[in-house]
Amino acid sequence: MTHNIEGRTRWLALVVLCMGVLMIVLDTTIVNVALPSIAADLGFSETALVWVVNAYMLTFGGFLLLGGRLGDLYGHRKLFLAGITLFTVASLACGLANSQAMLVCARAIQGLGGAVVSAVSLSLIMNLFTEEAERAKAMGVYGFVCAGGGSIGVLLGGLLTNLLSWHWIFLVNLPIGIAVCVLCIALLPAGRGHAHGERLDVAGAATVTASLMLAVYAIVNGNEAGWLSAQTVGLIFVALVLLSTFLAIEARVVHPLMPLKLFTLRNVATANVVGVLWAAAMFAWFFISALYLQRVLGYSPLKVGLAFLPANLIMGFFSLGLSARVVMRFGIRRPLAAGLFLAALGLLLFARAPVEGRFVIDVLPGMVLLGIGAGVAFNPLLLAAMSDVDPADSGLASGIVNTSFMMGGALGLAVLASLAAAQSASGGQQQADTPAALTSGYHVAFFIGAIFAALAATIGGAWLRRGAPSPSQRVRDEDALKQSIEQSP
Question: Which pLDDT value is given to residue 347?
Answer without folding.
Answer: 95
